[in-house]
Structures are given as structure tokens and as C-alpha cells.
């Protein structure tokens, strides 16, 4: 879910399921970093716990969607820190199962947003590095975000991740470190 309020929308982990092309699909909505109501450490522990339990029970992750507001006029320190944490959580070799979804498109500001997008996707310290390693970019609701457009964009992302996961489900770095190496969250990358 993408919120439009000043307070964070997702306060706890939510699981939503539906059937798509004969497959059961489960979407996991997690609190984001830089949350209004919890620290980044609390958020990391909640996400890590879920990911480690699912992995220990042989529930594979097909992919991860990383939303980023295209309307941000710069990559803030908090945004950069969140991206670095995300990269550590995923680990090398997993980015083909990652989607970067740029959100908050506004047709009136399209020219500026296209410039932002180009820089975000080409700059190695932003999304350029993970895109060069297989992450895919989608514009989420780039024409203003009517309900039909949002649904169509979401289904395109889900379809892509299902296709990618058929080749190889992903084991995230955090899952490997917590379950296989039996590390504590504080001792992970």
C-alpha cells in the first residue's frame, strides 16, 4: 500500500493473498524504514523475523518490491541509508528478484520526474548498481494513479516477479545469515 498521509500506514506486517493464473500469491506488506512509529532497528527485527521463519519453513520469496517516491527532489540521507540497509538485507546475487517501483508520479511534473528517474537508475550509488545486477524498474501509476491504472501496474509487477521466480526463488542474505549461519540480527550484514 502506498500512503498519502503524514503518518506511516503500515504499522505491522500484513499478509494478503489471492489467486493469479492458477497460483496462490501472497503479498507481504512490511513497515518501512524511517517509520513514524518505530525505530529502524525494530523494523529490521520484524522483517528479519518473518523472513527467517518463512525460510526455515521452506517458504520461498519470489521477489521484493522497493518503492521509491519519484517526487523526491533529491536522495536524502534517510533514503540512502534505507537503500543501503535494503541492499545488505538482500545480498549480492538476488537483484534479479527485485523491482524498483517509482511512485507518486504526477503528469504535470513529468519532465522533472523523468530527469530524476534517469539519475536514480544510472547512478551507481542510487539504483544503478542493483539495476546493473538485474533489478527491474517499474513506474507505478505514472499517469496519475486511477484505481484501474494502479491495479494494472501492480499486476505487471507481480507477473514479472512470478516469471523471475520460476527460474530461481531467492534466498536473501538476511535469511541465510539468520537461519543457515545461526547469527543474531545484530551480527548480520
TrEMBL record:
Gene3D superfamilies in the cross-refs: P-loop containing nucleotide triphosphate hydrolases
InterPro entries in the cross-refs: P-loop_NTPase
Superkingdom per UniProt: Eukaryota
Record protein name field: G domain-containing protein
Organism: Cryomyces minteri
Amino acid at each position: 500500500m502506498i500512503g498519502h498521509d503524514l503518518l506511516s500506514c503500515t504499522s505491522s506486517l500484513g499478509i494478503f493473498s489471492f489467486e493469479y493464473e492458477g497460483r496462490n500469491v501472497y503479498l507481504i506488506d512490511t513497515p518501512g524504514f524511517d517509520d513514524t512509529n518505530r525505530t529502524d532497528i525494530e523494523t529490521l527485527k520484524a522483517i528479519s523475523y518473518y523472513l527467517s521463519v518463512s525460510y526455515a519453513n521452506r517458504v520461498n520469496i519470489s521477489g521484493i518490491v522497493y518503492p521509491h517516491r519519484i517526487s523526491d527532489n533529491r536522495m536524502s540521507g534517510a533514503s540512502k541509508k534505507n537503500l543501503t540497509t535494503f541492499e545488505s538485507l538482500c545480498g549480492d546475487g538476488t537483484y534479479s528478484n527485485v523491482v524498483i517501483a517509482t511512485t507518486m508520479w504526477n503528469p504535470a511534473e513529468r519532465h522533472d520526474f523523468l530527469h530524476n528517474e534517469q539519475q536514480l537508475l544510472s547512478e551507481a550509488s542510487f539504483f544503478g548498481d542493483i539495476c546493473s545486477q538485474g533489478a527491474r524498474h517499474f513506474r507505478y501509476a505514472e499517469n496519475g494513479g486511477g484505481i484501474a491504472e494502479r491495479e494494472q501496474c501492480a499486476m505487471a509487477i507481480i507477473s514479472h516477479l512470478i516469471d523471475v521466480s520460476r527460474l530461481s526463488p531467492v534466498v536473501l542474505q538476511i535469511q541465510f545469515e539468520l537461519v543457515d549461519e545461526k547469527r543474531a540480527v545484530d551480527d548480520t550484514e
